[in-house]
Amino acid sequence: MLKIVFLLLMSGGLPVAIAMAGSALLYILWTGNLPAFVVIHRMVSGIDSFPLLAVPFFILAGNLMNNAGITNRIYNYALALVGWLKGGLGHVNVVGSVVFAGMSGTAIGDAAGIGTIEIKAMTDHGYSKEFSVGVTAASATLGPIIPPSLPFVIYGMMANVSVGALFLAGILPGALMALLMMLTVAYFAHKNGWGGDVKFEWPRLNKAIAETLVVIVWPVALWLLIVKAGLPAQLTVAAGLVVLFAADKFFNFLAVLPIMTPVLLIGGMTTGIFTPTEGAIAACLWAMVLGFGWYRTLQWKSFVKICLDTVETTSTVLFIVAAASIFGWMLTATGVTAAIAESVLGFTREPWVFLLLANLLMLFVGCFLEPTAAITILVPILVPICQQLGIDLVHFGLVMVLNLMIGLLHPPMGMVLFVLARVAKLSVERTTMAILPWLVPLLASLVIITYMPKLVLWLPKMFY
Predict the structure, then answer these.
(1) Fewest 10 Å CB contacts: which of 60, 99, 113, 436?
(2) What is the reported pLDDT for 179?
């Protein structure tokens, strides 16, 4: 009954959150076993969670970075690093998204933020709109894979999994996805005879390489001083930041400080300086320091608008989580999740078969539901099966998020698809066709990540 009402409400065009909460309320009223106020009680308790406090702060941090003019710095850094390769701006698109993923935490933020700059630059350099949109859509999926990630926060809360471990788990898979996308760009460049888009210059490349080395060496040096030498964490980080800002002032780096956002988050969590929720607050402070103090590209008038946009986005996300909380509770209380688990386990007890079936299900669901709603619905159903089959929940969380990100590229509900269609002024049909070739590297990444859990779990097991 509960599932039938939910599907009827969804087919009637109601938003997924209202369909979930409404079906639970109608079921309770129809059975008469529980008072109606249980719906409100469960919805409130569903969002009364300390880890969920990270959601508004990560959204605010991404909005601050978006509005601080930092996207141009990231683009220029990526251009200096790989713009001279064949199919240069295609590679720039991927590298830029890797960097921007460390600030936005969402695929839609990536597509609407740096994606706008990248599509315009590529079309101005003679690339077709279809190719520009395709590579931008594919690289936008990196947003929630490379930390920080809003879907990881939601999954971690729902599945009772460490958010810090999920953040670490996304680093190597994100690098793998970026590599496969760049190989795809190289294939198209070779096929079409494209050259580089900027002149190869050693000074420009050396500066970009130096910035990359700073991003790698700086956190490693701090980690050695804190963990191996035993120096006080807060004092060591403060001294390291002073050195970093001095180096940025002296060498006039393009994007070292913005790139440090995920580095500071991961470093702070793994060394115990702060929790993921406190890390989200630290990301906001870092974005404000860069926007208001260092680059001076943010104004207080725009800050008010940024805060209002953050409240609007947060309200939408948390309302979906609240509605999914009562829906998931009703699924469990009515025995639906147990029945599904029993039927799946009756069909197979092989983890690889279950992962194949789960991938197909999540790819299908991702085409129809927004990722937050999909996570909150699927976790109560699939996670108990994973626990019985011995599948690591950190690994499964990454598999789930990647599936749902791929779903964002497809009609009828693919938000990235519609954002890029609007940005590029292409029809949804042409945008869909432009994205199809890029499913090859994305699905190849999905297969590798699904069936090579060591790639996902190596970093989390090292630090947790």
Answers:
(1) 436
(2) 95
Please tell me whether residue 106 adopts helix, strand or coil conformation: coil
Angle between helix 150-159 and helix 371-389 axes, rounded to 10 deg: 40
Task: Tell me the per-residue pLDDT of 383-414, one tens digit each, with 9 for 90 and over.
Answer: 999 999 999 999 999 999 999 999 888 776 67
- Asked if 267 contacts 219 with a C-beta cutoff of 8 angstroms, the reply is yes
Supply 427's token pair: 């029809």
Q: Are 40 and 329 in contact (CB under 8 A)?
A: no
Cis peptide leading into residue 453 (ω within 30°): no
Answer whether residue 202 shows pLDDT above 80. yes
> Burial, 118: exposed, middle or buried (Cβ in 10 Å; 0-12, 13-18, 19+)?
buried
pLDDT > 90 in the chain, percent: 27
Q: Give the pair of three-digit tokens for residue 148.
A: 């920080």
36 within 8 A of 365, measured Cβ to Cβ: no
Structural tokens at position 85? 């390769």
Which amino acid, 348? T
Q: How confident is the model at residue 312 (pLDDT cuts 50, 70, 90)?
A: confident
* CA pair distance 23, 330, nearest whole angstrom: 10
Burial class (CB in 10 A: 0-12, 13-18, 19+), 387: middle
Distances, alpha carbon 194 to alpha carbons 68, 87, 185, in Å: 33, 5, 10
In 3D, which of 170, 191, 192, 173 has the Cα closest to residue 181?
173
What is the rounded CA–CA span in Å between residue 151 and residue 142?
12
| Reported pTM | 0.87
φ, ψ of residue 192 in degrees (nearest 5) = -100, 0
